Amino acid sequence: MPGTSSGRPLPDGISLQEMMKSPSLPCSNGDASTESADDAPSVACKECGGTSKAARACGGCWQVWYCSKAHQASAWDKHQRECKSWKVAKHSELGRYMVATRDIAAGDLIMADAPILIGPKQITEPVCLACYRPVDGSYKCKKCGFPMCDSDCQDADTHQPECEAVSGSGRPVHVTLFGENNPLYECITVVRLLALRDNDTILWRRLMALESHEERRSRTEAAAITQRTVVDIIMERMQQVDKYDEDLIKKILGIIDTNAYEIRLPDSSIQGIYSQASMLEHSCIPNTHRTFDADLNLVVRAAVPIKRGCHLTSCYTEVLATTTVRQEHLLTSKFFTCCCPRCVDPTELGTYCSAILCPSCPIEKKSKKPLVVKDKKVVPTGVAIADDPLSPSSIWRCNTCDNPVDADYIVRMTAVVNEEAEELESTNPNIKMCETFLEKWSTTFYCNHTILLNIKYVLLHLYGSEAGYELADLSPIHLLRKEGLCRQVLSVADAIVPGISRLRGSVLYELYQSIFYKTISMYQSKVIPNEIAKKLAKEAYDALVECARVLSFEPPVQPEGQLGIEARGEIKQMIKWMKEEGWKTA
Ligand SMILES: C[S@@+](CC[C@H](N)C(=O)[O-])C[C@H]1O[C@@H](n2cnc3c(N)ncnc32)[C@H](O)[C@@H]1O
Predict the structure, then answer these.
(1) Which of 38, 59, 74, 544 would you label with 529, given CA atoms 20 to 30 Å apart?
(2) Which atom of ligand 1 is nearest to the CA of 209?
(3) What are the residue boundaries of the SET domain, all occurrences included (predicted)?
(4) Is 88 helix (H, G, I), strand (E, B) or coil?
(5) CB-count burial class (<10 Å; 0-12, 13-18, 19+) for 207
(6) How far is the CA of 282 from the centre of ligand 1 (A)?
(7) Triad 290, 299, 562: Cα angle to 5°
(8) Tens of pLDDT, residues 508-536
(9) What is the SS3 assignment for 313?
(10) What is the ipTM for the molecules in this complex?
């Protein structure tokens, strides 16, 4: 029967009246009036051309209309290929971007985009050029000399472009450094993309349609470096001078910088170029969630409910970074200034993630903890924030004594401490090291500053997993410390990566554990009465359920996917335990 024979199920129809309950929203960057006039739904039936007062739109895209359910069903086999909850629009500053054509519920699939190409990251340690596991040089490709896993990987189709380019030059490579970044790999993805020109016209056309910012990139330090590490190597070392033009290589480098997505694999991290997903606009509070399926298709879902007319956004940079750091990254690598609601707000949606403690205010005036009174955030005191967060030379000012703080001092000091934090993180720190770092810097930065938050994120996992600090053995003080850290990081995550996000999911799990163990310990030792224990157990259960929901979208090969599976298992145990105690979960 048409409409049910193959593919996705037929969506319900939606009437104009139902649609009008969800009017088109103004877009976050630019306004809805920039969209084309064909937004207004036509009530002519897509199948027969006739009009009807009872016409209903396809509920999948809200873009095409049918005079009857029967005509919607008969058109479905054809329409489902183009039925999407979004469309690509154009804006003078943003370029192309994606806009929702209908209301999209949190968790709804927006797209599963097949890659144009997968390859090693530009900056990477030596990895096998077929399966991308780290290599140690014990097996080398017989033709080009690149270290690989074995002969099967050596013969994989994906490896052929660089293999042919290197072996054709008659000078196989000699990789001698392993376990650290190796500049030889900077050319691989570029060579693979270049090879599409002669091997796959459709993918090549899609690639060439992507933004490269060639002109602006040509004046950057990155362009000067990659001239030596990529362009010259491909032209001279690989002797491709008769085959490719230098400008084409530079354009491809620009396409990679602007569009590549990092893909985390169990043992390494690689990159992929995607055509449709490249149209996602950046926001520092993204409304979509990205994962990769087993075939490395980029799966995009709504992280939060998205209203028709809203732009679909993804975060191109680190979310747990200060506004200055995010802006600098976006400007130098993607050539734009982000004007999302988080960036233009000096308080970053009340999180004060970039704030420092005022050097002039007396210590008792400065907020040490995020203040929450009856679930409402209270403005901290004695914190300095930028007057204009989008300007690197903005004056910073204390929100209590109004004294200015030198912006240069803040930038330099933040960079130094950030380096110290990164070094700490790279050494697999223990609880003591993290606590010492936090104590040292908590008189300088506001407690939600991203430098402190990143360390707190590490620390909240260590309480409960480090030897000697296993969950069952944690003292009440340490359990409370873990819970406090979880609540603090979660409250920031709720504001900047709301809904379905790995950060929220993984912290919710730790929060569940800390409340659960605290409850058990206090209940069994009769420190709290039944009623309070019941309330706390319900709170732990709710955190666990939300964790399982959020992480249910993660692939099982990823640690967060495994955590989601664990959480689902623990929900059953929790229900059983609460039943035994005579407590309800609902
Ligand atoms: C991955 S591409 C997105 C698609 C691109 N707009 C196009 O037309 O091909 C990234 C580029 O889009 C633009 N862009 C994305 N998000 C933006 C934002 N929030 N504000 C301004 N420009 C943005 C920038 O030029 C950025 O380098």
Answers:
(1) 544
(2) 9
(3) 84-317
(4) strand
(5) buried
(6) 7
(7) 70
(8) 999 999 999 999 999 989 999 999 999 99
(9) strand
(10) 0.99
